[in-house]
Amino acid sequence: METTDSNLLSLASGELLKKFDPQKYFDQFLSEGVYPDGRPVSQFRESNVKTSVDRESDGSSYVQQGGACVSCTVNLSVAISSSEPGVLFTIESLGSVSEDLITDAQNFLDRLLSKNVFFDISQLDAGHNLRWTLHLKIMVLSSDGFIMDALLTAVNAAFMDTKFPSVFYPEITEEDATIDLSKVKINREKISRLTLKDTPVYSVYVLYNSWNAADVDECIVLCDPNKEICELTQNRCEIIIGKNDLIYEMSYAGKSALTETILSEIMICAKRRYGKISEGLNKIRAR
Amino acid sequence: MSNSRIKGKLRTLRCDLGFLKRADASASYEQGKAIVWCSINGPGDVMASKRLTMKMLVEISNRHVNDQDTKKLVDTLVNPIVEHAIERTKNPRTTLVITLQEMNRDGEYAPVAINSACLALLDAGIEMRYIFCAVCISYGNGVFTVDPDSVALSEAEARFIFIFKPSITDLGGKVIGCDASGVYTMEIYKEALNYARHSALKIFDFYRVKIQEKLAASLRIAG
């Protein structure tokens, strides 16, 4: 009985310290190189990726990464070739997810799609002067400070899962002849998939200043921090990295300086993360 | 990257401090054709509901920023950089209102706004942890352009914005903020950073000259 009481007391005092002095509580762990749950600061949380979760759509995925859960469905439509964007997306969320996170995610995804980072847009050509349009519906189910990592993995997995049926137009057309979309025939037995150029991976890092640090620029790099830790410090670095060490987006703002040493450490973690996510996605595709 | 060339240089910098008579401090900052006005009011009274017991409340508003990309830069770069630089514990239970107004756009808004804010804060005499400056570099077709205007920016493959605070050891200063967008490698990033450092030195020199002019004028009046 006494042992149980003392365990409860120590638990309570830990929770009390976390509530009243979160800086001191987290400092005990982070200065030793671990998070309170025992995860090393250089390690990312586990990811869980499933594809073909929605049989009604042409491609779908569900990703659980850290504290974020995101689902992505792809629906195809065929139309006459034009200069309109080949990929249209909407991001929705449940009430608990902040609007700022959704707006940021929209901006990131917009920029990546405008750079044609994922695949060559010519793959959407369906022949007979017709073109596929991908309609992405992204649903953010939960978040833990960041959603972009899970969202980008979900988009990559959904693109990999997308099945393109073959398109047949019965009449021979000249280049400038009018196409009657009602005569277009879709054959779902003969399918093809997208060949992805790259699977960009987003990762976020926080530069943490210990209480005991002599210099404000003396920082510990925290990989994949949760929401509570992000509230302690504003030194945040976000990076989207692709294959062959290409960087698509990088941003940092904070009180501490982003030195070359810290940047090198971040790049090593980001490349390692990219390798793991890409390998996982390729394994799913190979199944 | 040994064949990369650099073109362009920092555009002409101009600044008028204290030009708004009704504000506690102000700066009209021009970088080439880009113009941003910054006005500062405070430290002053704050409503009880917004009052922070241990530090000063800093409210930053960026007027007429309509496009999504610039709004994102304002939220992730401009506002945090300005806020972090101010020593907020010196004036607790007060508020500092900073208003940035874009008068003319020619290139990126964020670096011009950041430099304007720093000059206005110096004009106000607000205690800061460090002064700061921002530089924009663009990269395209193997060529770096320092402080690109709108035309150069539209042709760029990648765009880098670096924010520096002064340092004795690092040329140009230490990087306290960056936003890099486009398709590039780490080598391109490092080369852009190197060019930005040289421009940062010139901007810090410009701050020194402007404040010396202002203080010299004040001493003449006093004398």
Explain this structure:
- The complex is a heterodimer of chains A (287) and B (223).
- Chain A is of the alpha+beta class and 287 residues long.
- Chain A is 31% helix and 31% strand.
- Chain A folds into 2 domains: 22-43 and 200-286, GHMP Kinase, N-terminal domain (Ribosomal Protein S5, domain 2, 2-Layer Sandwich), CATH 3.30.230; 47-193, Ribosomal Protein S5, domain 2 (2-Layer Sandwich), CATH 3.30.230.70.
- Chain A has 6 helices and 12 strands.
- In chain A, strands 1, 2, 3, 4, 5 and 6 form a 6-stranded mixed β-sheet that branches. In chain A, strands 10-9-11-12 form a 4-stranded antiparallel β-sheet, with helices on both faces.
- In chain A, helix 1 packs across helix 2 and helix 4 runs parallel beside helix 6.
- The termini of chain A are far apart.
- The model of chain A has no long low-confidence stretch (mean pLDDT 87).
- In chain B, 34% of the residues lie in helices and 33% in strands.
- Chain B has a single domain, classed as GHMP Kinase, N-terminal domain (Ribosomal Protein S5, domain 2).
- Chain B starts with a strand and ends with a helix.
- The model of chain B has no long low-confidence stretch (mean pLDDT 91).
- In chain B, helix 1 (68-85) runs parallel beside helix 2 and helix 2 runs parallel beside helix 4 (186-222).
- Chain B has 223 residues and is an alpha+beta fold.
- At the A-B interface, helix 3 and strand 12 of A face helix 1 and strand 10 of B.
- Strand 12 (247-253) of chain A pairs antiparallel with strand 10 of chain B.
- Chain B: It holds the Pfam family RNase_PH.
- Chain B: One of its GO terms (biological process) is rRNA processing.
- Chain B: One of its GO terms (molecular function) is RNA binding.
- Chain B: Keywords: Exosome, Nucleus, rRNA processing.
- Chain B: Belongs to the RNase PH family.
